[in-house]
């Protein structure tokens, strides 16, 4: 339905683009004048966004790659004469004893957060789709974690999980469980930041999946019910498959957001103790800014690894979508 | 056709998603380049790490006063202290350095290494009155890169009421052994022993240094037996419950808040908490940090240096020097250090401070025996050593490694 209404519009875009690439420069203009002026107008309309993208995305990305390929010391950073060293910074990063744990933590952090955020988000979305009384109010309340500034929620988590004066340990104490060093024990710190990050990410999944659910026509559920499908079968055979496109984009965006999570980890544990909650994002910051003597090169190299990881998953997503579209 | 347009849109979506990731990781150049040159040559810029002082404060009034004495207009920006080093590096890269820069002392050698700062030979700043142990933090390679505006250091605050309850005589606390014994008594009395900051940042190293130096260890040898004994002391306090586990995540401010709750007998904290100490609502005292076998341990010096960054227009130095001299003149030092709750860097002003407030005496003694972190010509190797040191402290206190293992690993990582 959507496709048919948009089709003519898209065709005209394609046609115009075709003209843009095929059209010769104005000097060689043939009899057809109109496309040329139209073309100029098109470029004029395109200019602000292109300029914006170049200034704020392309240039920083280029600078980051450039930083990672040169040997920057504080001196050469200021003088701007850092020697080109190829992949030396990447080799430094790969050989660093922090690399393996940071990679593992990044993978575990991202995977566990995504699974739980998606599962809880989907469960809540299905739940709120029932349209019971107060469902709108409750749904709005679930958005609170998303609306809070990250520094506020991260500081709050850090207080709640404090070993000695935190409310979580106080609650555990009342039910007779020994206090846990949530943020200061190497075996718990990663779990703690994962829990905090899941809490922050659930509303995002809830909102996207809820809006996805609303686009599923009610008649399908009626038909399924008439065929004798129970609630689980309706979810399994109707809701889940029809939600697949929304799920895919939710997971992709969630992945990008989770890969780069920095605030919550830095504020609660600083990546420690003993690197036990260090991910690539915090490691990159630690290298570039966490020390009196910044190591910009390796810091940028770690940042670029993150960008590449996000790129890989972005391409996988595009590929999967293409396959689905052609089938 | 339909699918190709769709593909394009999906690619765009994926690229946008990427851009979000990229903008988070890409370097944040440019944000620091506030218009440092100002409007005319009659405007001089000053950057300081005192964002807590706003327009009406004594500090900004002093800056304006010094400006009008030198016949120029002052444009002042206050930065968060942890931001200032990177902001300065970026500004220098853009040729936008401030005329006068007031910066935390361990950063001076890094900025000097970067070629951002002028030496006192170039800018003719007079540093002859300054205590040599304080000035050492701003010296590297035989050159001096600025003059301290004030100094602070660490000592032990103690809660007189808690100690009385536990039956501890503070005069008996002379070395590590007697301090640990006092902590044991306090714990027995149902109170908490000591709180400090062992966080995984420069702050953690700063707080560990008095114990490290107090054991006789050297920064060039992190895995010495003395260093292990200092780390074992802290580790033992945690194990025995004399110090809370939260020290691993404590900044000096949060550790102060724990002390201010009134439950703790001791707190390792700095001169800058003196004003807050008056507000805690219990009687407190101050004790220099004891060395392992008695005597006072050398504590690291804190506090800022007034420096004059390199400019394209070298003609500006003369006025910048006038501004810096004005800021560090005897009268102005006294006022500034009183506002900042710092110890003055010259004996002349220190005497004046003690005359006005006798409670400053232990602090002035502590500052006199204090040591710069970048002293001993460590310069820019200090940041690397410090990072390994705080990591070792974190590893040992969290139980990931024994003190010996952690420090041995730290030493091999520095090399």
UniProtKB/TrEMBL annotation, chain A:
One Gene Ontology term, aspect cellular component: plasma membrane
Membrane disposition: Multi-pass membrane protein
Transmembrane segments: 40-59, 102-128, 140-160, 188-210, 242-267, 295-318
Domain of life: Bacteria
InterPro entries named in the record: MetI-like, MetI-like_sf
Compartment(s): Cell membrane
Chief location bin: membrane
Keywords: Cell membrane, Membrane, Transmembrane, Transmembrane helix, Transport
UniProt similarity note: Belongs to the binding-protein-dependent transport system permease family.
Name of the protein described by the UniProt record: Lactose transport system permease protein LacF
Source organism: Streptomyces jeddahensis
Automatic annotation (TrEMBL), chain B:
Protein family (similarity comment): Belongs to the bacterial solute-binding protein 1 family.
Signal peptide: 1-26
GO BP: maltodextrin transmembrane transport; maltose transport
Any GO MF annotation of the entry: maltose binding
Pfam assignment, any one: SBP_bac_8
Gene Ontology annotations for the cellular component aspect, listed alphabetically: ATP-binding cassette (ABC) transporter complex, substrate-binding subunit-containing
Keywords, in A-Z order: Signal, Transport
Protein name per Swiss-Prot or TrEMBL: Maltodextrin-binding protein MdxE
Superkingdom as given in the UniProt entry: Bacteria
Listed InterPro entries: SBP (IPR006059)
Keyword field contains Transport: yes
Region named Disordered: 396-415
């Amino acid at each position: 339905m959507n496709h048919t209404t948009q089709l003519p519009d898209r065709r005209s875009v394609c046609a115009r683009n075709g003209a843009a690439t095929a059209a010769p420069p104005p000097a060689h203009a043939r009899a057809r004048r109109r496309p040329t002026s139209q073309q100029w107008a098109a470029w004029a309309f395109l200019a602000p966004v292109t300029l914006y993208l170049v200034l704020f995305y392309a240039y920083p990305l280029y600078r980051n790659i450039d930083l990672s390929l040169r040997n920057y010391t504080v001196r050469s950073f200021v003088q701007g004469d850092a020697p080109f060293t190829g992949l030396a910074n990447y080799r430094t990063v790969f050989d660093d004893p922090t690399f393996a744990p940071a990679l593992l933590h990044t993978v575990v952090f991202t995977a566990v957060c995504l699974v739980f955020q998606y599962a809880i988000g989907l469960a809540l979305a299905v739940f709120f789709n029932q349209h019971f009384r107060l469902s709108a109010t409750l749904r709005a309340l679930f958005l609170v974690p998303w609306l809070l500034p990250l520094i506020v929620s991260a500081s709050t988590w850090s207080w709640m999980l404090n070993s000695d004066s935190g409310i979580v340990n106080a609650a555990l104490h009342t039910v007779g469980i020994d206090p846990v060093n949530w943020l200061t024990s190497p075996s718990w710190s990663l779990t703690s930041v994962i829990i905090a990050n899941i809490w922050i990410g659930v509303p995002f999944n809830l909102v996207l999946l809820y809006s996805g659910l609303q686009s599923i026509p009610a008649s399908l559920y009626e038909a399924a019910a008439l065929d004798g499908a129970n609630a689980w079968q309706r979810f399994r055979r109707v809701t889940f498959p029809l939600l697949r496109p929304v799920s895919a984009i939710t997971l992709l965006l969630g992945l990008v957001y989770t890969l780069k999570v920095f605030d919550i980890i830095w504020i609660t544990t600083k990546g420690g103790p003993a690197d036990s909650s260090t991910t690539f994002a915090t490691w990159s910051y630690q290298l570039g800014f966490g020390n009196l003597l910044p190591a910009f090169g390796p810091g940028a190299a770690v940042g670029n690894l993150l960008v590449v990881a996000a790129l890989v998953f972005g391409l996988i997503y595009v590929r999967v979508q293409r396959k689905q579209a052609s089938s | 056709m339909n699918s190709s347009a769709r593909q394009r849109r999906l690619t765009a979506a994926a690229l946008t998603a990427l851009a979000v990731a990229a903008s988070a990781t890409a370097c944040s150049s440019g944000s620091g380049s506030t218009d440092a040159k100002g409007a005319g040559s009659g405007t001089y810029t000053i950057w300081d790490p005192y964002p807590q002082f706003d327009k009406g404060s004594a500090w900004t009034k002093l800056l304006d006063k010094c400006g009008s004495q030198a016949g120029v207009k002052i444009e002042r920006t206050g930065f968060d202290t942890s931001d200032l080093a990177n902001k300065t590096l970026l500004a220098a890269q853009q040729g936008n350095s401030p005329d006068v820069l007031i910066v935390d002392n361990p950063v001076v050698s890094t900025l000097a290494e970067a070629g951002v700062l002028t030496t006192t030979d170039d800018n003719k700043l007079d540093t002859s009155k300054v205590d040599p142990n304080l000035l050492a933090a701003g010296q590297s390679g035989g050159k001096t890169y600025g003059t301290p505006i004030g100094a602070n250091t660490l000592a032990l605050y103690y809660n007189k009421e808690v100690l009385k309850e536990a039956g501890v005589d503070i005069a008996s606390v002379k070395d590590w052994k007697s301090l640990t014994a006092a902590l044991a008594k306090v714990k027995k009395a149902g109170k908490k022993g000591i709180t400090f900051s062992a966080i995984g940042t420069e702050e953690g190293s700063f707080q560990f240094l008095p114990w490290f130096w107090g054991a006789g260890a050297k920064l060039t040898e992190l895995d010495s037996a003395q260093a292990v004994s200092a780390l074992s002391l802290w580790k033992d306090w945690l194990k025995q419950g004399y110090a809370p586990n939260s020290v691993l995540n404590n900044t000096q401010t949060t550790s102060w808040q724990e002390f201010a709750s009134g439950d703790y007998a001791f707190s390792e904290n700095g001169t800058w908490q003196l004003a807050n100490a008056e507000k805690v609502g219990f009687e407190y005292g101050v004790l220099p940090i004891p060395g392992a076998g008695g005597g006072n341990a050398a504590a690291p010096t804190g506090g800022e240096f007034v420096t004059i960054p390199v400019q394209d227009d070298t003609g500006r130095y003369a006025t910048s020097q006038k501004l810096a001299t004005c800021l560090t003149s005897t009268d102005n030092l006294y006022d500034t250090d009183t506002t900042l709750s710092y110890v003055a860097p010259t004996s002349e002003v220190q005497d004046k401070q003690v005359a006005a407030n006798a409670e400053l005496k232990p602090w002035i003694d502590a500052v006199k025996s204090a040591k710069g972190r970048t002293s001993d010509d460590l310069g820019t190797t200090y940041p690397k050593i410090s990072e390994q040191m705080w990591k070792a402290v974190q590893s040992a206190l969290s139980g990931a490694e024994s003190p010996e293992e952690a420090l041995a690993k730290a030493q091999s990582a520095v090399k």
